[in-house]
Design brief:
heterodimer; A: Cathepsin B, Chain A; eight-stranded antiparallel sheet; 20 helices; disordered C terminus; B: mainly alpha; elongated
Amino acid sequence: MTPFLVCQFGKSTLSNLVKECFGSDFPDILRKPQINYAFHYLQALNAQSVLLESEYIDKDFLEDCERYYLRRFGANGHKCARLHFFSEQVTHQRIEELLNNGDETKLAELQACYLGFMVVKPLPRTFIGKSCFKQYKGFNVDDTKRLLARRYEVNLFGISLSVDSIAFQEQDKVVSACATTAIWSALNALSWIPVRAIPSCSEITSNAINFIHGSSNSFPSRELSNKQILRALDVAGLRYHAEQLNRVSQSELIDTVKCHVDSSLPLILGVKVFGLKNGAWLEKAGHAVTILGYKTGIEESGLYIHDDRFGPYARAKFIALGPLSLPDTQKQTWGMILQARDDAGNWLEAHEVLVPDFLIAPMQKKARLPLSFAINTCKTIVDNIAEEFRAVAPSGAEPHRLTYTVRLEEIADVKTRVVKSVPAQSFRDTNGTAIPLTSEQRVVWLDEKNRFLTWHFARLQWVAEFKYLDQPAFSLLIDATEIPQGNAVSAILRDSPIACEATLALLQPYAGKSSEANEGDKNSFFDSFLRKLHQRVEGLSHHLDITYGAPRAPSYLKSEEFAGGDIVLNGSLKIFYDATADSIEAHFPQQATAANPAPLIWAISHDGALLIGVEENRMGHPCLTGFKPARIAGELHRLSNGWAINAKSGRYSGDYSDKDSLLENALRRFKSTFAASSAQLSIAKPTPAVVPVPADLSPRSGSPS
Amino acid sequence: MTVAELIAAARNREVDSAQVEALRYRVMEAEERYEQDAARKSVSDEGLSRTYSL
């Protein structure tokens, strides 16, 4: 058999190539709605060429074959074929040249025009296997149109290609029904599951029907129940959150889809399908599809789904059911229709209506809290900030405009984003003026950022990003691994300190005051939010960090500073916790009067005490602190007219970026501690830069302690 | 009301026990609504048994 064939992309060539795969047993393949859809989809991507890879081993079909098809008398074997699509003219000559010399530039050109592939299984009628088509342009540019995708690596005779998509296949009606392929596409969309670890349809069906009471443990499989779908997800090692949709509004579903798709999570949607027959709408049966995208905004909103009876990324448009008079819709007022194009690219009239009925959100095992907890917490915050705003705003004022989006994220991704973040330098007021960020706000923001980045959190977080007047305000992190009665708000990140003053500050007076009215079941974490807000009223530790620098471990020890495995403590150490009316001289008379006294060294300890001692026998700051973490440290020198401090400590003060301001604060501390010496205390003038001298001429000197 | 005016009004604001109680009441009402939402969306045995066969 010829290993590959290349043709121009067209309906007739596509049909002939599929027939070429496994003889001419297939009827007119263009009558298949999936092939018709795929043709129009690829046509819209400007497909120009199609390449048939005559023999291809597909992992999914191989497993299905092993489980069921192998013993079929008329089996065509386990080998599939694969069609590859390109948006440029691809010829036999072009492929052969690439195979001959593997030119990198030409490989890149081929990749640039690669549109994806479709596996053709050796089955009559239900032959569309794993198919990955490139997405249309215009998605994932902003938050109004999103589609999920992952990268599929393709190896065509040694030529490496890739396509960003989510795999689609039609149900074969033997080892898989619609629900099985919906689960299979959903598993493909879970990016943390390696492609090769995704179970085949036959395995998914087996997992679904085993262990469920009343299940038939054999193929062919004609249907799956919701219970069986959930069982299959259990076996796949996933957490799922399910809800019934028969009393859910259209906007609620869109919000739920948006949050999950923004979290890179697919959804499995169960629908009732109604078809038009003799002018009347009749219920056909239940059907399951995979939701992989959404479109919101000013234009009509809709969902993008993989429907195995239709095709990948099919657009489902919302419609009102009222005018249709559907039977038995349980008073549901809205539904969806799938939109398909004709050969001219025009939207065709729908002949089916899908009425959403059941929604399953598969996610990581550790994501125990469903989305509703995060959404409810955000709603309560927004509602109560609006209420507090009304209390302070004059009558007739524009409503407080605080909006939010929620998604599930790994903490590593959140931190990667935060580490690159900078606070907005100003906030655009409603009158057009810019409110500038103050230096104090910047210092606090940096401190909070540092604390967040260096603190530990659960791996999975529901992240709610709040915007005030369409400008970033703050983000709320809710521990997705927490239990409903837990204290799940793990962090509040101030994206704009100015916006926070106009939003969070309205609830700040309630921080620390419990909002819990009773001990009943909780569906939000507003109380946990208030507790977290309360923590921001920082205590002594925060004050010390800001004033004297965050604690640092001593960078090294000198041999003189430890003996017998223990740190040698400075015998002259004096600890000052509070202000005194004394002078420095009263505590260190020898340093005040001696002609050439040993120098004094000082440090602000971890708990804020001022430590002072005499530097003797090369025993430096670690002997003051007992080798414990400390803040800014330096030397205290007697001058002819008083005392001067500096921040010379090679062990503690070396890496503060704001050393000068910390030293200013330390000077104030000295002045309050030694009130009688206050007027004589100053910061030592910096010594002139030392011009390096050759090593053999430089005198021996010790490094700052 | 400008943002600057709002910030000035919100800064150093204090609340009394009546306002705390009002907040508590609002949160309680919200929790009741969420409870109803959860019940509205909760999965029934009938829902679990629904099959998909198209």
